[in-house]
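Q: What residues go here?
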């Protein structure tokens, strides 16, 4: 598809994949960034709005600001994501609710505010960043992967119901990308992509109209293989690999 001279809102663009996407897209497009913190690398094609996706009025104000400068909204990318360790020995339901408010319901707020314009225009782009692991969880990952699974199923239904409305849908499912989130979770791997490499790949796949943007390929194949394993085999395999994928670091370095 033609991804040039568009006006795109990126929710969650102050760091990680969202930041890299904003920078990459701004080379040939206009980008409105929406984050709790200022965008770190502004340029003439990036308009920043500081707000909270849990607050619909914040989102509406950002859309108005973006449209006042560039007239129309051609689509949005939801790249907001918080990670949280789930400790069931000290479980608090409110912790999961707070994570859902940001990772999932924040997307619904964004959709409610942007979708009417896209339906009226009968054209546009909606993309979400979910995860490669959608049908499985990881140790201490029930809350985080639960939010991403909810996003995946809802987004699939959204695509089905609006498939003839002229809107292009893209689900971005990254594996290991070097972001503040992955560093806070103390992940290490020789398969880690930089944010810039991930953003370039995502933009390339959107231009090709690849609706499922999963990467890297070897991890995509691995996760697909894990989906067909019996639970008992999967549990043993994952637990045996955890020490190889995670390392202990002083909290001050996170």
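A:
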């Amino acid at each position: 598809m033609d991804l040039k001279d568009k006006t795109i809102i990126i929710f969650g663009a102050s760091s990680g994949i969202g930041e890299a996407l904003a920078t990459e897209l701004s080379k040939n497009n206009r980008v409105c960034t929406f984050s709790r913190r200022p965008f770190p690398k502004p340029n003439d094609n990036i308009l920043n709005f500081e707000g909270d996706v849990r607050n619909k009025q914040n989102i509406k104000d950002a859309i108005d600001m973006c449209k006042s400068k560039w007239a129309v909204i051609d689509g949005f990318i939801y790249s907001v994501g918080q990670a949280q360790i789930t400790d069931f020995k000290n479980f608090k339901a409110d912790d999961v609710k707070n994570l859902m408010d940001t990772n999932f319901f924040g997307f619904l707020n964004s959709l409610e505010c942007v979708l009417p314009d896209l339906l009226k225009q009968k054209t546009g782009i909606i993309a979400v960043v979910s995860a490669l692991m959608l049908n499985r969880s990881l140790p201490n990952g029930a809350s985080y992967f639960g939010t991403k699974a909810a996003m995946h199923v809802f987004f699939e239904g959204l695509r089905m119901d609006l498939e003839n409305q002229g809107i292009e849908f893209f689900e971005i499912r990254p594996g290991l990308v070097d972001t503040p989130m992955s560093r806070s979770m103390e992940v290490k791997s020789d398969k880690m992509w930089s944010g810039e490499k991930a953003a370039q790949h995502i933009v390339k796949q959107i231009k090709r109209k690849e609706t499922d943007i999963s990467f890297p390929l070897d991890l995509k194949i691995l996760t697909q293989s894990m989906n067909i394993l019996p639970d008992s085999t999967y549990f043993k395999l994952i637990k045996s690999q955890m020490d190889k994928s995670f390392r202990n670091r002083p909290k001050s370095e996170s």
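A: Context that may help when evaluating the design: The chain has nine helices and seven strands. The beta strands are 7-11, 30-35, 46-50, 75-78, 124-129, 167-174, 212-215.
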